[in-house]
Amino acid sequence: MPNKRPPNLDSPLVPKIMKYMSRAHVWLYKRSGGRIGKNWRIGAAFRKPAPNLLLEHRGRKSGKLFTTPLVFLVDGADIVVVASQGGLPNHPQWYRNLLADPDAAVQIGTERRLVRAHAADDTERARLWPMLLELYADFDSYQSWTERRIPVVVLEPR
Fold first, then answer.
1. What is the rounded distance in angstroms from the CA atom of residue 3 to the CA atom of residue 10?
2. How many degrees, rounded to 5, is the angle at CA 105 between CA 102 and CA 109?
3. Which residues neighbour 8 within 8 Å (Cβ) at sequence distance 6 or greater?
4. Which end of the chain offers a freer environment for a tag, N or C, measured as fewer CB atoms within 10 Å?
5. Cβ-count burial of 70 within 10 angstroms (0-12 exposed, 13-18 middle, 19+ buried)?
6. C-beta separation of 3 from 144 below 8 A
7. How many of the other CB atoms lie within 10 Å of CB of 68?
8. How far apart are CA 6 and CA 149, in angstroms?
């Protein structure tokens, strides 16, 4: 049964708040070597923290480097992230950037890894989605709040 969409989710303030909170998160994560910001503790993750990484990606229009904090799942040698954007109606910029230029880097703690991104196909998504919900149950709520199919992104080592 879908969750009721939060009434203020479509406020123009939500993306701005997310943007500034992400910048603060990145700043703290980088300066502390991941000691601060390594775990997401919001919503379902309050009692069961979910691991966070920093994704460095290139802007598809500007060519500028951006860094985005994301909850992640380790799947063998791959890292899996979700383009949920809290259930907002549009895909996040970082996802669109990866579609244009799939070469990226992640920082987990103090370790930096070069990766190549691809959107999970239907078979991959069907396998990964239950594991992602086990990691962070709010992904299910986010999916119920939007009409778009939330992409699952696989980051392979390069």
1. 16
2. 150
3. 14
4. N
5. buried
6. yes
7. 20
8. 18
Number of CB atoms found within 10 A of residue 57's CB: 25
Query: Hey, is 154 helix, strand or coil?
Result: strand
Residue 1 confidence (pLDDT): 42
Report yes or no on whether pTM surpasses 0.85: yes
**Which of 60, 157, 158 has its CA nearest to residue 101?**
60
Q: What are 54-63's pLDDT values in tens digits?
A: 999 999 999 9
The beta strand positions in the chain, using DSSP E, are: 39-40, 50-58, 65-71, 73-75, 78-82, 103-108, 111-119, 152-157
Query: Residue 5 has what DSSP assignment?
Result: P
Q: Looking at this protein, which amino acid is placed at residue 60? A: R
Q: Give me 9's structure tokens.
A: 């989710």
